[in-house]
Amino acid sequence: MAPRKHKRTLNIYFDTDYTIIGVDGSLRPGARKLFNNLIQSGDHIFIWSGNGIRWKDLDRHKLSHFVTECLEKPLANFQSATEEIPKNSKPDLVIDDNLEIVAALGGVWVNRYYFPNLEDNELDIVGEIIEEVKSRGISLNPRYRKTPIF
Ligand SMILES: [Mg+2]
Questions:
Q1: Which domain holds residue 80?
Q2: Is-contact 48 82, C-beta < 8 A?
Q3: What is the pLDDT along the chain (150 residues), one digit of tens a residue?
């Protein structure tokens, strides 16, 4: 049997607060490395937030050049809210500290990042899960929630 083909280039939507940025505005360890790796693989990074459009925060951390678009994140009715997004830009995976949106749209749930912590390796794990999903179509890591496209 031929191996199943999986989509190789993904639109990956990152939440902002407590996913990549802490309470004090600091950047979560591994964020730059993960963004760089995703771009190298041809993926597209979208940043959304329930707290507005976050280019300023991305500029401050010199991450803007990695990012395709910043959007307003829906806080409820996730499925219908993302229907408005053009087909080519729709989220394939969402990365968020809120399990509800990850469960609704598919992606990776992360532990909340509040305070600077150099030991935090959550985004390395996110990178591993994304790789796994891209090569096998699934991850058995409990942080992963299946996306309709896979
Ligand atoms: Mg958050």
A1: 11-145
A2: no
A3: 445 556 678 999 999 999 999 999 999 999 999 999 999 999 999 999 999 999 999 999 999 999 999 999 999 999 999 999 999 999 999 999 999 999 999 999 999 999 999 999 999 999 999 999 999 989 999 999 997 654
Structural domain contains residue 5: no
Within a domain: 97: yes
Give Dmax over CA atoms of the chain in angstroms. 52
93 domain residue, yes or no: yes
Centre of ligand 1 to C-alpha 150, Å, is 24
Distance 38 CA to ligand 1 centre (A): 20
Centroid of ligand 1 to alpha carbon of 99 (angstroms): 10
Whether 69 is in a domain gets the answer: yes
Whole-number Å distance, alpha carbon 1 to ligand 1 midpoint, is 41
- Phi then psi for 17, rounded to 5 degrees? -65, 125
